[in-house]
Amino acid sequence: MEDFIFRAVLAAIGISIISGSLGCFVIWKHMSYFSESISHSALLGVSFGLASGLGIHFSLVIVGAIFAILIVILQRRQFLSNDAILGIFSHIALSLGIVVLSFIGGANTDYFSLLFGDILSVTNVDIVWVYVILMVLASLLIIFWQRLLLLTLNEELAVAQGLNRDFYQLLFMLMIALAVSVSVQIVGVLLITSLLIIPPAVARVFANTPSGMAFQSVIVSMVAVGIGLSASIVYDLATGPAIVIALGGLFILSQLVYKRSA
């Protein structure tokens, strides 16, 4: 196996585990629009990383964290609806990212891969970053699983039991920001949300428990990423769109199975 294919497979497995598990909470908490917004902010993170020299990964985490903190602060003030706040920040971040890239980008800047992903360009450093983030997120999910699940399923009961809603909301948003920081290279800025919401949407058809849904979501994500990656290599397609098409096919199949069994 060629080295670049081996690295791509390793990255795909790691990102599938990250997106498949976190995506369940995105579905349960009805935060699809938030994940869409923070993925758009990733373009600002990329441009900031290129301009500052900090590196794309670190700048994605920094911008995502700032984005999440500002959203939580504005949500607490309750002078605008959540979708309005997310829409404002999403479009501002996306526009700023485009403007900054227009100033610093050159002939060697691959805008297409930033928007739609290019997993075949993954380096060894990228692999290390993916699995470091995977270990961090897995540890956080294991430690806070019950509390996050309780806040998701019955927020009033969780608050009555003394859980700090704002803390766990911010924690979850930061976890999404970390997931986005490692997903840009595989599916690109514009398609990250699909990797977070479609696998759990497929798994929801078959799962009977929250933990079962998370496990099945990871499997669905791995299958779709494997199909998309294979199609990308064989037919020379953009990696991100190929993966999303595979996810779409699995979603349609799951709905057909659900209707037949109903």
Automatic annotation (TrEMBL):
Keyword tRNA-binding among UniProt keywords: no
Subcellular location: Cell membrane
Highest taxon, organism lineage: Bacteria
Membrane-topology annotation of the record: Multi-pass membrane protein
GO biological-process terms attached to the record: response to zinc ion; transmembrane transport; zinc ion transport
Keyword tRNA processing among UniProt keywords: no
Alphabetical keyword list: Cell membrane, Ion transport, Membrane, Transmembrane, Transmembrane helix, Transport, Zinc, Zinc transport
Protein's job: Involved in the high-affinity zinc uptake transport system.
Protein name per Swiss-Prot or TrEMBL: High-affinity zinc uptake system membrane protein ZnuB
Organism: Candidatus Ruthia endofausta
